[in-house]
Structures are given as C-alpha cells and as structure tokens.
Amino acid sequence: QLQLVESGGGSVLPGGSLRLSCVASGISPERYDISWIRQAPGEERERVSCLSSSGGSRFFADAVKGRFAISRDVAKNTVYLQMNNLRPGDTSVYYCNAPTAFYSYWGQGTRVTVSS
C-alpha cells in the first residue's frame, strides 16, 4: 500500500510561482515512479511531469517545458513540482500518481488557480 498526499496549491497571478509537494508513505515509497497529472473541469487528464524512482529520468509535457521542474527529497519521501511563470491555462487540480503494473495510486489533489 502506498499513500500520497499533495499540498502547495493556491491562487496566483499570471507569471507567479508555486511549489507542489507530494508526500509518499507506506511500503517502500522510494521505489515508485511519481507523476504529476492535472485535470481541469471538462477536460481530460494530462500528465504534466514524471520522475523515475532513481531520479535519472524526467518527463515534461510540452506545455510546461522550461517552466516546471520536478525533484525528489528521498529523506522526506517527497516529490516536488516547482511551477514558474504560471499561466491561466495551468489552472487545474493537480494529482500525484504512482502507477504500478497492478495498481495506480492517487492522492486527493491540490487546486491551482492562475488568474488576474
């Protein structure tokens, strides 16, 4: 079992920054790849970024390349999503996700609103 808890969402002006956190707990959380996935109302889910368990592989969606960064603090079992130069199009609920061959673990989500 793996539990994921996100935090760090909020409301910001365009051009602002936020850092989302995903704290993992349970059985060997350090062994999981972690993805950040967002879903806006009426929209499909979009994988924003992913970090491999080793930290050696990163993925970013084209829409966020150059603006978002992903990192992991192994000691804290936490994966961060640093979001800079935020745009109104980044408004969404952001979920932490750990997919496995048999099950996909999800957090409860944290809301990000970018608006002037």
Task: Kindly describe this structure.
This protein has strands at 2-7, 10-12, 18-26, 34-39, 46-51, 58-60, 68-73, 78-83, 92-99, 104-106, 110-114. It has 116 residues and is an all-beta fold. Strands 2, 4, 5, 6, 9, 10 and 11 form a seven-stranded mixed sheet that branches. A four-stranded antiparallel sheet has the order 1-3-8-7, with no helix packed on it. A hairpin with a 4-residue loop joins strand 7 (68-73) and strand 8 (78-83). The chain is globular, with a radius of gyration of 13 Å. The mean pLDDT is 94.
User: Cα-atom Rg, whole angstroms?
Assistant: 13 Å
Sheet with the most strands, sense and barrel status: 7 strands, mixed
Helix percentage: under 10%
- Total number of helices: 0
Mean pLDDT: 94
Q: Give me the count of strands.
A: 11
What is the N-to-C order of secondary-structure elements (H for helix, E for strand)? EEEEEEEEEEE
